Structure formats: C-alpha cells, structure tokens
C-alpha cells in the first residue's frame, strides 16, 4: 500500500508531466504543427509528419533515470555495427549503472565496432 510520500510524489509528478505536455502542445499549435502529436487513426505511428518514420525503428519513452540509463547501457553493449552518441554534455566517467562507466563500455565496443 502506498504511503503518503508515494501518493504526493505521484500526484506532483503527474501534475508536472501534464504541465510540460500542455506547454509543448501550445507551442506546436502556435507554429502550426499540432497535428504532429495526433497520428492518423490506424496508422500505427506514434507521430506523423514528413518524412515518415523509417521501418525498423522503435521509440521507448524512458522517464526514470535509473531505468533509462540501464536500458542505454544494455542497448549500447549489444550494438552490432556502430554507436553514435550525442548530448549536451557527456563525460567519459559518467556511470550508466553502478557497474558500468561510459568510458569502459565505449572502449570495449571500440574493439569490435565503430564508435
């Protein structure tokens, strides 16, 4: 049974997410792109626009940092051809999980694929 802190955390988190979502919907509407968030019914797309998403791609929205970083470490470690990393700020000593540092993961991958 959730305690009062869990209940408050959930309510606050849902409220913040709603504010951010509404903010972005308003911005897209102002620029004439509000349809991007509402794909055509039955299209199977998470968004619409040009160009359309390429086949074979997948989008997973990961909000929780611990889960997201663990997923990133797992997916990157399974890369078969190449890895591209882009971000505002990335440091080699960044810990993706308690046992995996970005530097070590990329060094291991560089032995077998382009990084």
Give the N-terminus to C-terminus distance in angstroms: 46 Å
Helix content bin: 40-55%
β-sheet strand percentage: under 5%
Order of strands in the sheet with most strands: 1-2
Write a short abstract of this structure.
The protein has 115 residues and is mainly α.
Describe this structure in words.
Strand 1 (about 95) and strand 2 form a beta hairpin. The termini are far apart. This protein has a two-stranded antiparallel sheet. The chain is mainly alpha-helical and about 120 residues long. It is built from three helices and two strands; from the N terminus they run ααββα. About 45% of the residues lie in helices and about 5% in strands.
Task: Please give a handful of descriptors for the protein shown.
115 residues; mainly alpha; two-stranded antiparallel ribbon; 4% strand; extended
Topology (elements, then pairings):
Layout: H1 4-30, H2 65-77, E1 95-97, E2 100-101, H3 102-110
Antiparallel strand pairs: 1-2
